[in-house]
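Internal tracking record. Fields below are filled automatically when a chain is submitted to the structure queue. Please do not edit lines marked as system-generated. If the sequence contains nonstandard residues, flag them in the REMARKS field before resubmitting.
Queue: standard
Priority: normal
Entity type: single polypeptide chain
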Amino acid sequence: MIFPMKKTYPEKMTFSEVWPLFEKGGLIHLSTVDGNHPRVRIVSVNVFDKKLWVVTRSGDDKVTQIRKNPNIEFTLAVQGKERTGCLRVTGTASIIEDQQVRNDVASSVPWFSGYWESCEDPNFTLIRLDMKKVLFDHHETSSKYTIAI
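SYSTEM-GENERATED OUTPUT FOLLOWS
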């Protein structure tokens, strides 16, 4: 069950208009669910094949939390000239076991070899972030938008 984001903004924007902000990748604040509590941490998000991915250690708490409850939210700061905006995303996370996908994504992450021997390393977990709704506090205009996916 996905818990829908309660907040919406009256202005609308298309996903294709904001995708270039995600395409850059970078650091996000990822929130998972641990029982009845949110758990937030900063992680690197990687873009491959027009999807968002997180590569992480298999023993990290976020992996266990996602296996139990795939509902997530994350924020991505968007730096403007005079202010910082924010993309706030509600969605789900999936642990990917497909070896070819694991290899393809791992090969696209420049720093992967600094943490794992290969994509077959049991200490490597691949997570796909599936976005359902985005709220955008625009980094240049201060306008607020809701983006349905």
